[in-house]
Amino acid sequence: MAINGIVRPSSDVQKKQVLQPFNLTATGYNLNYLPEYIALRHGFFREQGLDVTVNIPTPWDGVLDALADGTAVMALGGIWVPSMYRDRVQQYTVFSQIANRCPLAVLKRGSSEGFKLTDMAKSTVLMKSGGGASVGLFFKMLLRENGIDARAVDYVQDLDGIMLGNLFQGGMGDYFITDNLSALAMVSRNPNVSIAMEMVTQGDIPWSVYYRETSTITPEILDVQKRFCIGLAKGIDWVLQHDAESFRDELAELFPTVPVDVAISVTNDFRRNKMWTSTSVDRQGFERWQQGLADAGLLKEPFAYETIVDNAPAAAAQLAAKAARQS
């Protein structure tokens, strides 16, 4: 098994299986995808007869090309893309989720003691955008939900995240929004910066989902998706059952550029705050995000859950897992 050329171990028994190729294309490599990486490393997909490989294209929207030319079985990314494209460019169906919360954090200079979201009105906020529009979409939705006019904030969001992070530390802007892992790593290096808010605490939302072109779905594809969901669910359960300190070495291997204590801290924070719950897309979280996308102008109006999501593979996987536990 490999992620962009990184070989993952498997048991001798698993190697003897006749495995079905399952090529996944993803918009990035992120800690909020951790249960998938655990499922790969621990052979949970191979148990379902799937030889899962992962490609991360540059730029990220190459995932849509991979679906179109058939080099990928499915894509992993934000649900805002299938929503925005629907009835305009291409129909995509979402069948599973991995991240149930937003993995971003708000950084500020100085102490974050007493911070309130309303403090951000009339400020300048730096936001990375290299991986798509999700960062700005979620933050502006959060402002609207809290009665803050998103137009009362100035944004710098068309630059690379590393560049923006350096500029923020050098004095540009009032706040910087980036992924939680990068935020905590910055704080560990820079005592003049603090985390004002971890957005994982800000309610359910289908942040990262799996999808493919609707017209290509067949009974055989649905069966493969079900088996993928079984393996992914085992990965989620495994992560939830193990304190991150107990798999320190794996985290160090998976995220070698991040201090391992930072990776452990973020993982346990995500475990506590429902980043990973189920392979099924939560209906209330979906409706919340749809309203946010509509308010942002990406949709004419929110889509109904069943228009975008087919929960059948995830539901079938849950039934299969329950039957296996009872047998």
Polypeptide structure, described:
The protein is α/β, with parallel strands linked by helices. It folds into 2 domains: 2-101 and 205-326, D-Maltodextrin-Binding Protein, domain 2 (3-Layer(aba) Sandwich), CATH 3.40.190.10; 104-201, 3-Layer(aba) Sandwich (D-Maltodextrin-Binding Protein, domain 2). It is 40% helix and 18% strand. The chain has 13 helices and 12 strands. The protein has helices at residues 12-15, 34-41, 62-68, 80-85, 134-145, 161-170, 180-189, 219-241, 248-254, 260-272, 283-295, 305-308, 312-326; strands at 2-3, 6-7, 20-26, 50-55, 74-77, 92-99, 104-109, 124-127, 154-156, 175-179, 193-198, 208-213. Helix 2 crosses helix 8 (219-241). Mean pLDDT is 93; it is low at 9-15.
List keywords for this structure.
D-Maltodextrin-Binding Protein, domain 2, alpha/beta, transferase activity, five-stranded mixed sheet, iron, 13 helices, single chain, 2 domains, 327 residues, 18% strand
